[in-house]
TrEMBL record:
It comes from the Bacteria. Belongs to the glycosyl hydrolase 65 family. InterPro entries: 6-hairpin_glycosidase_sf, 6hp_glycosidase-like_sf, Gal_mutarotase_sf_dom, GH65_N, Glyco_hydro_65_C, Glyco_hydro_65_M, Glyco_hydro_65_N, Malt_Pase/Glycosyl_Hdrlase. One of its GO terms (molecular function) is hydrolase activity. Residues 763-791 are annotated as: Disordered. The keyword NAD does not apply. This is Glycoside hydrolase family 65 protein. Residues 16-270 form the Glycoside hydrolase family 65 N-terminal domain.
Length: 791
């Protein structure tokens, strides 16, 4: 496990000053670079040692059979697993006669720095070989945000103390051997040599490999090209074989001399494009990268990030660790989504093979709300990707005997690939999560073209799903039975409150959009009768309520289930899913992750303040947070019900999920939803942002340790900056093309009008504690963030 404080606290960098081989795989995830199109794990340049070698291309996957002991009708037959593709980051070094390998000789100095503003990973090493020869190496790596098929590495090596012969081997390697699989269902399936060689080529100072997957029929081209600077006398040669290509540079360096190599790597992949087309595509990408040159690529990268941070930075004063973590989180969210462009945003981004590289509801519920207010173009493209898979979701609904679209619980290419119904397709709420992401995006951007082309149909087809999945009982109440809500420890139950409330909003949003776009809706077969049926279902939606306890059961009957025996559950038995049978988890009051509490966030408009406080306290006692998708939501609701210090604790957990490897599985990739959750915990928690309607609502209030929280939101053509202090808040607009632009928002219920010339400063009203003091199950309280002397 990563030691706490492995990385010194700094505002804009994640720095490693000591190489700990026991947590190499974890640091490879933390230091992964990606632009949403290609992703490189933070493997050492020389490849060995490694935790998990990883180079990923968005949606480049292999099919594998899903074996069932007892198959049932409608079970998916094949799974999809992200492929570790040709590794272009390998640069090996021979120092006189010895390979540079940190496990031998002496690592005199080691540092790796992820620079969140430069968008680079830099490594500085001084190494003494077993024979006593010392070299200094400095490598800098980037995955370009501006040239999406390109990664580049600058590699410098110099001798210390005396002349030496250096041989640098820069490689492209396909079908790397991967470590074997553990029994944890959250890790990926291991594919044996998934790539079949099709073509290899040596040209200029580099080479090209083209491969194809056997079953999914995807073709991949990878090309590398080099610029080499150093002493006049050097030998450079390239060779290529089926699964590897290698450029070798040989020279003798005297002290004071340096060998500098810039390696450009480009990837292209397709299910349709021919070999020559892909060859040309990567050739062109390399030409573009060389045209910019190393300095040009770095400058473009910095410009891109300057704009991103200018629009999206969150400043936190009073908790430097959280400050660093929230920027690290935003950086990974950006990396996951920036250039995904009509491809999915996976739960691990492109940082590791965890969950087989699949995208879940994590995207729409946790990642897209952040991107909606920071990089809305990425939201449009993620939802356009969902739309591009609509025909598969419609087919799936048909197989299940339903109407509309049943989007897959987990997928890479759009087909359902979950082999486990209760924590798979039964999570039908993903349909409403997608619909809500559409609603939020359109509301925040006013992008009517998107709404007409994509949004409307997504709303209509998901509404149709709800109408056919649910039913009116003899009293007219609308029920949605046999589904799994967000809490995967309560499965296949009736009337999950989260699902019902989200479906209700989905049905109404579809009816409203169909009215706005009458003609387009008519072309989709929507008539007045259908919209009336949606409105009826929404109006009659049944929401269970326990009158005796005055709380909402998260599913019908939940509050009368047997209690889980937390006192006799030893700490090492968490996560429970690895140590207890599902049947037992399903029939008791134990909650894996925020469910009813999540409903109180995204459908907060459906609960009173008193209900929120008593529900929150009830579910706190039963929620174990075995999913990383929980802490951020608990932070949001803790803040809303006035438990500010507890909210701060949960914020810390969401934000530090990967920097502290809290769930001990960062090795498989970072937890993108939890990292997005750090932003959500700050902005929706302490900023109190709610976007239930087209007037943004804020209820800012800080915990004792934070002196200041500043964040920005993009809203239509405007940029709103919210600057929260302990006793007052300033709302300011900037960057509008229209000098008389006005934004109406509410601050603790009071309507404010903010203009570009007139920032508005208002007091934070005194805190009114609204509910019982919450407690967590034994041993499951979050780590405290307030210091001793503070409350
Ligand atoms: C959670 C799901 C989540 C998945 C991927 C599971 O452990 O329970 O809600 O979608 O992980 O992050």
């Amino acid at each position: 496990m990563i030691r706490e404080r492995a990385y010194p606290v700094e505002p804009w960098h994640v720095r490693e000053t000591r190489l700990d081989l026991d947590v190499l795989a974890q640091s490879e995830s933390v230091f992964a670079l990606s632009n949403g199109h290609i992703g490189l794990r933070g493997n050492l340049d020389e490849g060995d040692p490694h935790g998990l070698p990883g180079t990923y291309l968005n949606s480049f996957f292999e099919l594998r059979p899903l074996p069932y002991a007892e198959a049932g009708f409608g079970f998916p037959e094949s799974g999809q697993t992200i492929v570790n593709v040709s590794n272009g980051k390998l640069i090996r070094l021979l120092v006189d006669d010895e390979p540079f390998d940190v496990r031998y000789g002496e690592l005199v100095d080691h540092e790796r720095v992820l620079d969140l503003r430069a968008g680079t990973l830099q490594r500085t090493v001084e190494w003494r070989s077993p024979a006593g020869r010392t070299v200094r190496i400095r490598s800098t790596r980037l995955v370009s945000f501006t040239q999406r098929s390109v990664a580049a590495i600058e590699y410098r090596v110099e001798p210390v103390g005396g002349p030496m012969r250096l041989i640098v081997q820069s490689e492209l390697v396909a079908n790397e051997q991967l470590p074997s699989q553990s029994r944890d269902p959250r890790v990926a399936a291991v594919l044996e040599s998934p790539l079949q060689a099709e073509e290899r080529l040596v040209h200029g100072d580099g080479g090209l490999l083209i491969h194809r997957t056997k079953a999914s029929g995807l073709r991949l081209a990878a090309q590398m090209s080099h610029e080499v600077y150093g002493p006049e006398r050097k030998l450079i040669g390239t060779e290529a074989y089926e699964d590897w290509a290698r450029t070798t540079v040989t020279c003798v360096l005297r002290p004071g001399e340096q060998l500098r190599m810039v390696k450009y790597v480009a990837y292209g992949w397709s299910s349709r494009r021919s070999r020559p087309a892909l060859r040309d595509q990567v050739g062109a990408a390399i030409a573009g990268a060389r045209f910019s040159g190393w300095d040009g690529l770095c400058a473009e990268q910095r410009d891109y990030l300057d704009t991103f941070w200018d629009d999206s930075d969150v400043r936190v004063e009073g908790d430097p660790e959280v400050q660093q973590a929230v920027r690290f989180g935003l950086f990974h969210v950006l990396q996951a989504g920036a250039r995904a462009e009509l491809r999915p945003i996976a739960a691990k981004g492109l940082t590791g093979p965890g969950y087989d590289g699949h995208a879940f509801w994590d995207t729409e519920t946790f990642v897209l709300p952040v991107l909606t207010y920071t990089l809305p173009s990425a939201v449009a493209s993620a939802l356009r990707w969902r739309h591009s898979t609509l025909h598969l979701a419609q087919e799936r609904a048909k197989t299940l005997g339903l109407r509309g679209a049943a989007f897959p619980w987990r997928t890479i290419r759009g087909q359902e690939t979950s082999a486990y119904w209760p924590a798979g397709t039964a999570g039908f709420h993903i349909a409403a999560d997608i619909a809500d992401a559409v609603r939020r995006y359109v509301q925040a951007t006013g992008d009517t073209q998107f709404e007409r082309e994509v949004g409307l149909e997504l709303l209509v087809e998901t509404a149709r799903l709800w109408r056919s999945l649910g039913h009116h009982d003899r009293h007219g109440r609308f029920h949605i039975d046999g589904v799994t809500g967000p809490d995967e420890y309560t499965a296949v139950k009736n009337d999950n409150v989260y699902t019902n409330l989200m479906a209700q909003r989905n049905l109404l949003a579809a009816a409203e959009a169909a009215t706005r776009y009458g003609e387009e809706a008519w072309r989709l077969g929507v008539d007045d009768e259908e919209t009336a049926a949606w409105r009826d279902a929404a109006a009659d939606m049944y929401i269970p309520w326990d009158e005796e306890l005055k709380v909402h059961p998260q599913v019908e009957g939940f509050t009368r289930y047997q209690e889980w025996d937390f006192v006799d559950t030893p700490p090492d038995q968490y996560p429970l899913l690895l140590n207890y049978p599902y049947f037992d988890l399903y029939r008791k009051q134990v909650v894996k992750q925020a469910d009813l509490v999540l409903a109180m966030h995204w459908r907060g408009d459906a609960f009173t303040d008193e209900e929120k406080a008593s529900n929150f306290a009830y579910y706190e006692r039963r929620t174990v947070r075995d999913s990383s998708l929980s802490a951020c939501t608990q932070a949001v609701l803790a803040a809303e019900v006035g438990q500010l210090e507890l909210a701060h604790d949960y914020l810390g957990e969401a934000a530090l999920m990967d920097l502290h490897d809290l769930n001990q599985n960062t090795r498989d990739g970072v937890h993108v939803a939890s990292l997005a959750g750090a932003w959500i915990a700050l902005v929706a928690g302490f900023g109190g942002l709610r976007d239930h309607s087209d007037v943004l609502c804020f209820k800012p209030r800080l915990p004792s340790r934070l002196d200041r929280l500043e964040f920005s939101l993009r809203w239509r053509t405007l940029h709103l900056r919210v600057d929260v202090r302990q006793h007052e808040v300033t709302y300011a607009l900037r960057g509008s093309d229209h000098p008389d632009a006005v934004l109406e928002l509410t601050h603790h219920g009071e309507l404010l009008r903010v203009t570009c010339d007139d920032p508005v400063t208002v007091p934070v009203p005194p805190l009114r504690l609204t509910g019982p003091q919450p407690a967590q199950p034994d041993g499951r309280a979050p780590v405290r963030r307030a210091t001793e002397s503070e409350p």
